[in-house]
Structure formats: C-alpha cells, structure tokens
Galactose-1-phosphate uridylyltransferase
Amino acid sequence: MIQMEKEKYLVFLNEINKDKPNEFKKVNIKKCPFCNRAELTDIIDEKGPFILLKNKYPTIKDTYQLVLIETYNCDTDMGEYSIEHMEELIRFGVKHWLKIEENGEFTSVIFYKNHGPNSGGSLKHPHMQIVGLNEIDYKAKIKDEYFEGIEIHKSDQCLVNLSHRPFNGFTEFNIIINDDLYGLNELAYNLRKVVHYLLNNYFVKCDSFNIFFYHLKEKIICKIMPRFSSSPLLLGYGIKQISSCEQEIADKLKTMYFQ
C-alpha cells in the first residue's frame, strides 16, 4: 500500500498576532506605522517611496517575512499610481523576490499583496509582502489550468486573461510574461488597469483584492482576485464556482482598458 505524504501546514503564531496593529478591526493602532518612516527599523533596501524591511510581526512560524511599503502615504491605491510609479514598484518588488528565491535558502518564496478589509490584510497603507517558506513548496499544488482562460489582451511580451478554471473560484485575472523580465513594464501597466477596473468598474462593488505572483516554467505570472466573503461551498467542501457572466466581465475590462 502506497503511503501518501501528509500535507504540510503553516503554523500561525497567536502570541505575536495579539500585538499586531489592525486598522480594519481597530486594534492596537493609533497612527499608521508605515507613514511614520522615521521609526521604521530593520530596513533592507530603500528607493524613493519604496521601502523593503523585515516584518515587525512575523506571525508565521518557519518563515522569513518581509514587507514592501509602496507609497509615502495611506490615501491612494495601486489603481491610482502613475505609470512610472507602478513600473518602478513592480521592478523593485520582483527584483527582491527573485533574488531571495535564487539564493536557495528557502523551499519556496511567495510574493503577494492584500488590499482592503476582505483581503486578509491588517493595514490600509499600500504594501506588499515577500515570504520565504522553510518547508513548503507553493508550486506543488499549482496547475497550468489555473492560468488559462478568456484572452483579454495579448502582445509579444504579455498576456492578460480571465481564468476558465480559477484556483479558488469566481473571478481571477492572470497577467503572464516570460521570466527574462522584458515584459515587466507591460505587466505593471496592465496590473494597474486591472486593479483600477476592480475598484471602480467591476460588476458589483468591490473594495478588496489580492495579488499573487508565481515563478513557474520560465514564466512570471501575476494573478489578481477580487475579494468578498468566501463561498461556504469552497470552505466546507472544496467545491469551486465560476461566474455565469465571465465573458461579460472579460469584455467589459477589454473594452474599457485595452482598446
């Protein structure tokens, strides 16, 4: 009889989390810690508005957690950045993500962003996170089909589509380039468009999203998910759903932002 390897779980450190500030829940916060740059510590790199530093509240065991602060202030979002700011931000973040991945110290390295009260984030100030995982390979559960779907935009260096078979269900947009990074500016430009669409023109009101980066099969892939309350079918049974109007969603994004 074949012995199946048990799934590995990350351990959440509650004793650290209890002191962590959370603006959405109004816990442990009087002012935004990312706006008060003079008191930031453990800074790894800084370029203009961008700061990469160690996470002051590393709530996940057996990981190396970094925060990338995107702006000087809280009152903006990725969809409102200038083209130049967006390009520089993505180039800065991807450079550090791939550098940590390449040093081989971790089983895998994840790069992602939370935005809004339904995203799993705790601070409004725009930021991203890079996390080195000591024992878990995020690529093990990833399938090619999660990044295939309705084509919205395609150029020599970049593809934008809407997932036919999304990782978690409903609406997931993918932006795909080669990992030679020649298409990185176009990825940044198109990511800005998708975020602006979700926060301003999605078919229902949306105030939260997640962005996830993947380095797979010589590709850099960026997946953008609008976030709402999670489906009980997904939580309880692992049953995924897709929208009945996915073609309409893709057509609206294409018409408003890619023509």
Summary: Residues 14-258 form a domain with the HIT family, subunit A fold (CATH 3.30.428.10). The radius of gyration is 18 Å.
